[in-house]
Amino acid sequence: MLRPIAAVLTRWSLRWVPDAWIIAVLLTVLTLGLGLAFTSRGLYGLIRDWGDGFWSLHSFGMQMCLIVITGSILADARPVRAFLNGLAGLPRSPRQAVALMAFVSMLLAWFHWGLSLIGSAVLARAMARRQRGVDYGLLVCTAYLGLGGVWHAGLSASAPLLVATPQHFMEAEMGRVPVTETIFRPFNLGLTLLVVVVWTTLAALLHPRPGDAVEADPSLFQDASETAPLGRPATPAEWLAHTPWVNLLVAGAGFAWLATYFRSRGLAGLTIDTVNFGFLMLGILLHGTPAAFLRSAAEASRHVWGIILQFPFYAGIFGIMKSSGLAEVIAGWFSAIATPQTYPLIVYWYSGVLNYFVPSGGSKWIIEAPYIVRAARQLGVGMPETVLAYAWGDMMTDVIQPFWAIPLLSIARLEFRHILGYAIVFFIVYVTLTSAAFFFRPGWGG
Description:
This protein is mostly helical. Helix content is 72%, strand content 0%. The chain has helices spanning 2-16, 20-38, 42-53, 58-76, 78-87, 94-111, 113-130, 136-143, 145-149, 158-163, 171-174, 186-206, 236-242, 244-265, 272-287, 290-300, 305-324, 326-337, 343-357, 361-379, 383-396, 406-412, 417-440.
């Protein structure tokens, strides 16, 4: 039954869901249309608001680029790859293999979603080589679970980290919300743990019986030959590029600063900037030499061109929302259909549905924040609750959305249709658990 559903959903996505930049343009047109219909701004005024906002979120865009780059750099470091290859030999059965893959993917995503995306692909490749009898489609699907349902509750969560960062773009409307009230809130930690336990167990239960599993072709994952060792550096410039002392000096200074910073601020000092700084320093340290670090950084930079092109357009949408009065209009719609009890669940579902068409937690926050924050204030719902509802909703449809799976699938050499049947099962369980959590929450705690 799952295979026909998966095939239909995959065909629909590939046929009707356009490139992310085209989505940004279409949403801009939609926002202009809503502005014309529900405000008195006029077309010229709305276009002026769009242009005024276009370059207003440079810092946020740079922060998102660095999250992608630092996570990729760290996952590409030789010690990390060696550790993941060692993990691949631990399972003693196919069920143990997919359960471990699911757990590691989600654990890595809680620390850094970029690390999970690349690191999970490395682990999946290693397991495909070493674990006989494991169903390859399920293995790759479990490698996607970190991005599919945990990342926006962890240490690289876009919205919670952004609102904890000084001078973020919504600070005038909602103030700063430290991560102790979002990421480290007991509700968030408990729900994260529940999802990890349930999904890890489900992964093992979903594995086909012996003989029914579809294994990977081992020839797809033969390692390329190692690069020939470098000769003795011939110039001072070459020596500097291949000495570990440069990296040790930079990383040592960086970790010394982080120790001083968190000693005075504690966990409440965690922001997008400190997360990026910490993972950058760790990547520099683990790569050993400037040459290795810069090679990895150049490779990681290939993944950020979409962010660079898309974010100015989302900033333009934010400019229209903020200056035209459209944010107040849409906030009124939310206030009219919600109560303080139901509002987090409504935000959760709204964010989840929109995420299927705008699969980016950072850029989508730019679109939604102006009106969901205003509606929360009108209803008396706290900012931490609103941010968490947005973050969990933003993950709702990730596991059945192919956008962020592209790098993983490229490394795994599979198509999304090969994992979507399993992904639908994970999606159904996830939506049931998280919707119940936001509706029946006994209190947000701490």
